Each structure stands twice: as C-alpha cells, then as structure tokens.
Amino acid sequence: MVRNLTASSVATRTTGVVFLLFTSICGCSASSGASGSGSSGTTSVIFGSGGQGGIFTNPGNGSGTVTAACTSGCTDFPAAAIIDSTGPSSVPGNAATLFGGADNFDSASGPCLAEPQLSAGSTPGALFPANWLRPRFRFTPTNGENLFEIRLQSPSEANDLVAYTTNTTWAIPADVWTKMGQNAVDQPITVTVRAVNSGSPRKPAGTRGTITVAPVLAGGTMIYWAASSSDVAPDTSKLVGFRVGDESVIDALTIPEVQESDIVDESGQNLKSGYGVPNGHAQCIGCHVSTPDGNAVGFTDQWPWDDVLATVTSDTLGAVPSYVSAGAERLINQPWLGMQTASKSHWTSGDRILVTSYAARSPGGNPPVGYASSYDANHGNLAWFDLETTTSIPWQHGQGQAMNTAIQSVFGTAWGFFNLDGETRVPLTPNLSHDGTTLVYTSATTSQDGRIGDNSETDIHLAPYGDRMGGTVTPLAGASTPGVAEYYPSFSADDRLIAFNRVDTSSATSGKIYYRPDAEVYVVPASGGTATRLAANDPPACTGETSPGIINSWAKWSPSVSTANGKDYYFLIFSSARKYPGTFHLPSNQYSPSDTRASQLYMAAIVRDSSGALTTYPAVYLWNQGPSTTNLTPAWDEVNIPEVPPPE
C-alpha cells in the first residue's frame, strides 16, 4: 500500500485556505456538534439522549544515553564555510569579509530567531535529544538585510561551523548533525546569526545565544490528528505519524482505511450513517491514544462520540485488533464516551482493559438495572472495558432495546465503573499510570457528552485502579487549586511527573475549556507538590507573541526516560497556536471557539536533578509536520507505523 508522504520541504499538500470546526469534528471538545442532541423519545437506555556517535547505550526502544568519543579538538564541524546555493540570490564570493570577525556585530538590531529558541539571561536555550530532527534556523531580519551568516561554536570542536545563505531558513546538514549528536553533547553550543545588506554593507546586526544537545536519545513515534476542513468527510481528518528524527511524515490512518463496519447511531436502532461513508463505518478521526502494544490506536469518532479501535501496522491497516471481541467492539461503540487510556500493566491476554469517561444517560430518572451503586445518573463516571470479553451483544436493525438489555446484563463482568469514593463532580479525561495502579483525571463541575463542559471548575484528581474497583479519590496537590482551571493530565513514562493544562486568570472557569488562548502547560510531581510552569510556553520575545495567549495544550510525554550524569531527561510534545511558516486562521461559525488560529506541534525538554528540582527548556518546532493542517492531540509512544521515507 502506498502511504501519503508529506514534509514541510516538499510541496505535496494543496495550498490555500483550510478550515476546521474544532467543536464538531471527532468529539475532542465539549460541544455536541452539528447533529444536535441525542434522539428524543427513544426507549434506549445505554444508547439514548445525551447527558451532562559517540558511544550509544540503547536499551532497545530508541531511548538511551550518549558518551562522547571525542571531547576536544574534534573535527565534526568542517573547516571550510558552507555556502547555501538554494537562496533567492547567490551568496557573494566575499561574504566572509562582509561580516568580519566572529564577534563583529550590533546586537541591538539583530535578526529575530524563531527557531531554535536561544538562551536569554537565566533561561537556557533549546535542548535537543541527540537523535532528534536536525535543528533548523529560522529568523527574520530587522532592517531588510539579505545575506546571513549562521555560526556554531562548540567547546569540543576545533572549528566553528559557519554557513552563508540568502535564505531566512537553514538547517544543519544531516551528516554534521549526526556527528554533533555523537560528540557535542551536554555542553553549551553558541549560536550567532548575523545579517548584512550585501549591496550596502555596514556593521552586521547579530543575535547570539546557546542551545544544547542532550546526552540522551529520545525514542518512539508521534501520531497526531491532522484536520483540513470543518466538514466531516472521508478526507478531512486523519492521523499522521513519524518517528524521532524523521524529516517527513506519513498518513498513519485515514477514514477509508478504518474497517469497522457495524457502528450504531445514538438511538441504538440503526447503523450510523452520513458524511460520505458507508453505513456503520467510522466518520471522523479525532482524539486518540495508541494501544500499549504499539499496533493500534483508539480514537473518538464523530457524533455521538463513540470509541473505535483500528490497527496502524501496514499488514493489517485499519482492522479491528484481533484481541477485540465482537462483544467488546459493541461495548465501546456506546455513545458519549470520552478520551481513552490504557496501560502496559493491563494489556496482556486475560487482562486487556480500556478506560474512558462515560457520560450520564437519561433513563427516565432511575439508574439503569445492573449498574453499580456508584453510578451517578446526573454526572456519569469513569468506565473500564474488557476488550477480550466473550460476552455476546446481539443487534438487529430497529431492536436497540434488546442490545441495551444485553449490555446491562454484563455490567460488572465485561465492563463497569470505578468506585470513585469522595468524588462529587464529573470525572473526565482519564490517564492510567504505566504501572497500572493509579488513575489521574479531570474533575469538573459540568460536563457535556463525556467531555468537559463550558464554564466549569476543573481540578486534577487521583484514584487507585484497584483491580477495576477504584477507591478513595485524592485531589492532586499543586493541580487542584480553586478558581484555576487544571485539566488534561498525563503521566510521564516513569509515573513520577504529571503534565497538565492550566488556566490561571480571572476567567479561568468561564467559557470553553478545550481551546483556550490562555491555556499553558505545567508539570507537577505525581505525589503532589509545587507545579512548574514550562519555559516552552513562551515563544521568543522578539516575535511579539506572549503566553498566556497562544493556546498551549494537550501535552503528552515521550515513551521513555533516560538518565545521564545523575539527571533524568524527559521530553514531551504539545500543540500551540503560535505563528509558524504557513500559519492561518480558521473562519468561524456557530460552533467555533473564539480563537480560530491553527495549531502545530512542539517538543519540550525537562531535566530532573538528583534533588528532584526541574529545569525546563524552550519549545522546539517540529518542522517536518504538515503546515497546512491543524495538528492537535498528539500521542508519543512506541507505535509500529510503517517506515517513513525521506523527503523527495
């Protein structure tokens, strides 16, 4: 099968304005979408009206440490200057003399360097995993300059790396970057970008700061939701993927590739229909997670927000995973489910559990038969599903009540609710720890269809998994502050840290929560403590953009943590609507958020020392992603997508 290949350096996507209706596509938000509320007058209970280089030490998963083979006088940086021949005009032969000595520049009017973000005062510059996508330098001259010098100086290198270009974007050559990832690690690399006008040269304008290559590798695959239109159609939403270091991306899963074929509508009486797909098929790919085995994803479909599992491996692409029984398939197709989560600790034969939020139904005012006493008919709950259940859930057209009766009859054996003792609000957006012992979730005062409702007080709470029984709820200290919106929690790979969204303004609990301009990313110890605001929230000051104000959201951790020199290195990926090449706004309509800027993906590094203190680093733009789609809700795991070819 030929997969669609895209890269920012290859013009393979169509140009022009693209559209995305955030609230109606695939159920990542709280709004119920264009279809309105559930069917009225239905006798359905479960289905019914919606409620509220050097030397690499690699353990085998792409992570690991780097020990430099050369520590001084290294010749990884070429002695001769690199001349970039791809610019709008030729680099003049006397370029070096126009710039003079390395320290000859006026810093007051230096170029604005948007990529990578350099150190400023006490704030360090960007930190790159040693095997990351090679750094790209993107800058804006301040006085119409047309000739630029990029200079890198490393304490371990005999030469400076010097490049001359007439482009305002330049990337380190791949062979040089590979050598840097082997030797120029764990040391400040000084970056100087200077600019002159070759027609009337004067003292160069310059910008200087440092970046660092971490002495560790990052592992895994990133899969993100890319949407290109507000219309729900087979070609307007998909999952796109790449591995660490890839310079292009591939379509990991598209709507036509999803093979599930008997999804029923919210009434339970008919197969789901509409939006240009065959009846009973998935209509949209949105919020998603990868399965712990790396072979599939679980995603939220279009209204009424049921859940779907589909493989992403090339040999079985789009199929329902073999371990998902027909009964389990029907159970997770119930409407008004939320974001999914699973853990490797509960992903073996006989214990393959999927967890999600379960919105309240409207069963005539009485809890449905078979529900545990912990069921809250007004607020819903967190639910678990046994994906290997042998139960049979029959369905025939027009006989949804028989299906509902069967679903109720296996409550507590094939699926059930966690007892969240002490929880008085709505539990949403769960994340299950990697050791399988703890649930972290958003506790919200209001909900809608399994999502965080508008105008909601939100805090982060913890609860034991308790062999699917739950237990006593504990507010997470540092992420459960009254009047502050705290939501979308995610455990780090070692379960020691939790990343989450935070809105700390006078309007924190007002308005829509899912795409707020004032959202920022924080981390807090999983045991509770002081929350740390990430430096990655802030764009370079020279861009004129500030945070809060750029929609930083949906942080997910890399699948491993590496330790070097007594420090633990963490990496995470998140979405942000800061400006990028090709940035665009989305036309608004009745379902749109107030802010219509498109988002892209960024990586951030966090280093934990032996005392537990955290140092956070600026964001790194992933320049291989498609710039003409809005890229959201990333997952970063060991996912077995096909190999990603290099850019053409």
What does this structure look like?
With 648 residues, this protein is mainly β. The protein folds into two domains: 5-54 and 218-637, 6 Propeller (Neuraminidase); 69-120 and 128-214, Immunoglobulin-like (Sandwich). It has four helices and 43 strands. The strands form eleven sheets. It has a six-stranded mixed β-sheet with strand order 4-9-8-11-12-6. Strands 37, 38, 39, 40, 41 and 42 form a six-stranded antiparallel β-sheet that branches. Strands 1-16-15-14-43 form a five-stranded antiparallel β-sheet, with no helix packed on it. Residues 1-24, 29-45, 48-54 and 363-377 have low confidence and may be disordered.
Unreliable residue stretches: 1-24, 29-45, 48-54, 363-377
Quickly name the level 1 CATH class of the largest domain.
Mainly Beta
Assign a percent range to the helix content. Answer: under 10%
The gyration radius over C-alpha positions equals 25 Å
According to DSSP, the number of beta strands is 43
- Overall shape: elongated
According to CATH, the homologous superfamily of the largest domain is TolB, C-terminal domain
Distance between the termini: 18 Å
- Level-2 CATH architecture of the largest domain: 6 Propeller
Strand content: 25-35%
Q: What is the CATH third-level topology name of the largest domain? A: Neuraminidase
- Class by SSE composition: mainly beta
Number of discrete helical segments: 4
Q: What strand line-up does the widest sheet have?
A: 4-9-8-11-12-6
| Mean of residue pLDDT values | 87
Whole-number tally of structural domains: 2
Largest sheet: 6 strands, mixed
